[in-house]
Amino acid sequence: MKRQMHLGLFLLGTGGHTSGWRMPGAVDSFEDFAAIQKIGATAERGCFDLIFMGDNLNVDLKGHPSYAMRFEPLTMLAALSTSTRHIGLGATVSTTYCDPFTVARMFSSLDHLSGGRAAWNAVTTSNPGAAANFGRHHPDHARRYEMAGEFVDVVKGLWDCWDDGAVMANRESGVYFDASKIRPLNHEGDFFKVQGPLNSSRTPQGRPVVLQAGGSEPGMELAARTADVVFSVVQDFDEARAAYASLKGRLPRFGRAAQDVTVLPGVMPVVGRTDREALDKLNALQGFISDGNALGVLSERFDYDFSSHDLDGPVPDLAVPDNYHAFTRVLLSKARRENMTLRDLYSLTAAARGHWVLCGSPETIADTLQHWFENGAADGFNIMPSHFHDAFEDFVDMVVPVLQERGLFRKSYEGTTLRENLGLARPAIHAA
Length: 432
Ligand SMILES: Cc1cc2nc3c(=O)[nH]c(=O)nc-3n(C[C@H](O)[C@H](O)[C@H](O)COP(=O)(O)O)c2cc1C
Description:
Oligomer: single chain
Bound molecules: flavin mononucleotide
Helix content: 25-40%
Structural class: alpha/beta
């Protein structure tokens, strides 16, 4: 069989576009569970591998408006697990502002509850605003990644405290556990001290899937060593191909093979029956952007206050800030390549919060995705609909069938767990 694409659905607020909620009939609240259930059903109709929920730990009223209030991801996904059967359920949880025992426990529970569909997006939390909610200083970029490395190791270690078959519950003999299959972790590191074992048995996936999305050097190293799936920020094919090669090229150093990590670049598809119709939809979306909102998103992405700059002047000479390596690098490089004004850059950033926007007919979109997939830039895509429900339904009902006809994407789920659908092996205990 031909190599198959993987598709994730990125769920952030009312959709990837900052102003998508203003489209007629669009979902306008991220606290609408009925809407989220409908999105889950659409994603399963489209045979998506995964729904993945972003998260932040503070409120930014200048950013994506609907993102200011949202469900806590694990709570929401636990509820969603009861109305979905196949799709993977990914939640973002911070390695800077949580503790490994709780994180290991939450994802182990979600994996059990969902029959093997849990995934953890391990983020270091870029936004310094979170610190004020935890009574701490925000560690710098390097330290956040040092903590993250140890954090992920502890979580995986806790998941490995129980072997398969540790729970016997033998009524005749009265033996409940095989104690030789349960062990403590006894971890003492630079940042964490955790005894273990976890109070949760080995999960259906062995270990929940680990996702990562950092684009900096330490981010790529952490992903190469520990992630099963990587979300990347892209704007350009050649750069995406270079980033893909860079990540896959690091894997052998960690005893891993190219197929052990699935790379999914983020993309906001705007689909019309024709290229013209798609462009009209994109223009309608862009027409809803307000200066204040767009500048807020831009300032957040660049950690820089643009308010004193002329919108129709050039993009100022900026360094890549400590916070958002992945986004700023690709956006600045595109702005310089295309000689953008600040207004061009803010329109692009407000559209998909710095992610790639791909606009066209189903065939145009499928052609581009196929080209990226077959030429070393992607193992699939992290789809970020501009809004719900129609923008996502357009992708599922118009683009997915083209990919399926071309033999690039499944027509039904192959496995029962997320790992099986991603084609990833169930980890052996003590595997890397
Ligand atoms: C697709 C994607 C989604 C992300 N989602 C979140 C998120 O929900 N919450 C968060 O705190 N960071 C999120 N991030 C940020 C990254 O995890 C990472 O912390 C950030 O890119 C800074 O790391 P870097 O300097 O290595 O790029 C996301 C990044 C990407 C590319």
